[in-house]
Amino acid sequence: MTRSEDQLRLDIVEVGRRLWTRGFVASNDGNISVRLPGDRLLMTPTSVSKGFMSPEMMVITDMDGRLLSGEPGRKASSEILMHLVAYRHRPDVHAVVHAHPPLSTGFAVAGIPLDRAVLAEVVTTLGSIPIAEYGTPSTPELPAAVEPYVKTHDALLLANHGALALGRDLFAAYYKMETIEHFARISLVARLLGREHLLSREEVGRLQELRGTYGIASPAPVCVDDPPAGVDPSCQVVVAPSSPGERLVLDTAFLADVADGQVPVGNGGEIQLTYGQLTTLIEDAVRHLTARTTA
Q: Cα–Cα distance between 82 and 66 in angstroms, integer?
């Protein structure tokens, strides 16, 4: 059943309130849009807090971003071009949500994509969450940066900027934004604890097959076998080590980095270690001392 324009306006207000309540946006951050019949777009206006909107505030544009209707003085979000590039490449997408959820934006600032096979539900529903290169907001640079990724992903991080979620409807896009931040939170906790167990490549393959069983539409399949370098429009790159017969694999790469002394350094040269990292360093030091004593 197609939702009426009046209901979609109310839905945008509700999604904006949820984004603001959860701390995914601050001040006038973020923007939300929905595709309307007749090659039109219903969108949040510029310079408005997403937590304090009313249905009348929304503006309507055409698919070139030209304003068609809205309250006097209202303009479409200055980042409308980023939304338009998603709609142009994805006829299946009917809603776009952009926000600045703190933890996932932190990963974007650190240059760390959320593309590791950690959570089965994320692999099944989103595949991977890459980082688009930095583009100055409100300029053509930003849509150009996200264009390669929206063709194959429903969720992505924006370098030093935030996150973007696409959906078949407005609430589907919003729920994907929730998943992005939830995944970032769990990934951060696991790394602070000093280790990550990854889903094996073989298990990722099984999850890929379940997508069809669950009726989950995906813009592109997951690829884990020697993924291509750079942006590949044919698949979603997921980091998953091969381990036949195993479902979970301890990621030894992170532990090796710790043992090699590659640890986070805070302000003033202060070394900051988690308990897991400290334990690993102590064990490594004991092994070296033992080796010297017996030599």
A: 14
170-205 pLDDT per residue, tens: 999 999 999 999 999 999 999 998 889 999 999 999
pLDDT digits (tens, 9 = 90+) for 50-60: 999 999 999 99
pTM across the whole model: 0.84
Torsion from C-alpha of 234, 236, 242, 243, nearest 10 degrees: -130
Strands in 37-148 per DSSP E: 40-43, 59-62, 67-69, 95-99, 131-132
- Tokens in use for 155? 């969720």
- What percentage of residues in the chain have a pLDDT greater than 70? 82
Radius of gyration of the chain (CA): 22
Strand partners of residue 236: 222
Domains of the chain: 5-192 (3.40.225.10), 252-295 (no CATH)
Name the amino acid, one letter, at 101. P
**What's the sign of the alpha-carbon dihedral 265, 270, 274, 280?**
positive
Q: CA angle 109-31-87, nearest 5°?
A: 95
Structure tokens at 71: 């309250």
Q: What are phi and psi of 129, to 5 degrees?
A: -125, 90
